[in-house]
User: Fold these one by one.
Assistant:
Number 1:
Amino acid sequence: MDEWVTLTELHDAYLNCKHRKGNTEACAIFESNLSRNLIQLHRELNNGTYQIGYSNAFCVTRPKAREVFAAEFRDRIVHHLLIMRTLAIFEDTFIDDTYNCRAGKGTSYGHQRMLEMANEYADGWVLCCDVKSCFPSIRKTQLADELEEFLVTNYHGKDLKQVVWLTRM
């Protein structure tokens, strides 16, 4: 078995995932057999048999009504593994005022930047909006194709084939 993911990397991805979701029931269940679960996930990733689990679908009403699909905890670990591998190439493409899911650039940072810009451009406008049903309307195959093209062009790790495989999943 060619090892493209080490147990140490997988454990680091687990710790990153736990940082945000550590107080959830799903995390507690995964942790109840942590070593066994990480070893199993490690084996599946390295031998190419990993499969995405079922998402938990639910509705929320605040700040507005919407449907949410939450990945299983073990799949979230894989998400964090992918982020650990590819974040640098994505960061290089973002403008400074892109805030979502970026370290040190959360809501507070965005609010502070908006206040700075409001002071700088006193006659300007601020638009706060949401595009209705944006994510459900995205064509998944087209997104996967564009992500694969981006990775092939910009990602230079020896594990490109595996990163593309996981990204397409």
Note: Helices lie at 7-21, 25-31, 34-47, 73-91, 107-120, 134-137, 140-154, 160-168.
Number 2:
Amino acid sequence: SGFSLFNAGGIIFMIVGIIFSKKLADRFGKRDVFGTGLFLSALCLLVFIFFTPESIALVFIAQILHGFFYGLTIPLLWAMIADVADYSEWKNNRRATAIIFSAMIFGLKAGLSIGGALVAGLLGAFGYVESAVVQAPEVLSGIKLMMSVFPTLTFMVGVGCLFFYAIDKKMEVHMEKELTDRRKAD
């Protein structure tokens, strides 16, 4: 079915993005590749607002591109969290890996819970009727917003937050060298 192909295309190209992630991060730095991937992924979502029901090929292309660019970000997020643990050790001479990862996982679970509740709340606010075979036009417009504009806004907030994330490629290399030297000295 078309929906299965739609999802499969996004997932396959997400895996391709994951494969390219490390190579790109080694060359350009995790923060910059993560930010670029997140930004481009958001743009691929945003274009869904402009598609008509007849734009099947464009929908598939946007989904595939979104999958690829989002795939770049997946392993980098976790690697960047490990960099935060290294940063903590570098600055404070003390590892804080457990608290950093547990805070991240708490944030992830809280975000998934809030996101799930928001989907249900927004569908209700737009007038979604579960038993209806055909939804009202305002419901369909709301669903398009939920598939395009709303996730784009949240992704862009993430991109904006990266301006405050100081661990770029240069700092990462510098921290790694200093931590290695410290550990050898101990």
Note: Residues 56-92 form the longest helix (37 residues).
Number 3:
Amino acid sequence: PGGNPVALLSKVILDVLRKESGKTWEKALRGQTLASGDMVRTGEGALAIIKFKDNSLVRLREKSEMTLTGTQTGNTMSKSVEVQTGVVGFNVAKQRAGEEFRFTSPTSVASIRGTAGVLNSATEADTLTVTEGLVRLLNRVSSRTVDVGAGFTGISGRNGELLSRITTERERQAALDAMRDDA
């Protein structure tokens, strides 16, 4: 059996698969718990909403894949969502002292203190649009960091480029779409 539950699938629409560490992909069901190391993948038109113990919500949009990690230290839990590919919308609860919520991709690390936004991990670059709060974005290639605030979009490139600029109307709309509870 897997480790302690870190989160649960609070909503599953259409083709959603989950994979426990060391096992094969299987159909995901609403209410299933997710332990550290579990993976979730969505097909075309699908949506998975994952709810963490601290009530943080992560919406895995269609054609996306992620791995969940939770590290317990005493009574604090640090959580990490590794986005292999695709789009995640997030509402992260304010983290307690010593706790952390991170999104990682092959290109970037986004450290979230309690905020809302969307991370889109694509081949050329990651795009992080913040709708609420502040996110520290690290480019893993160049080791540069930038703070991305509400109303701003951070772009972290595979070439090491990193910048933050005002969110365009199109990005803002895409972020709102990614936060919806329907597919």
Note: The first strand starts at residue 5 and ends at 13.
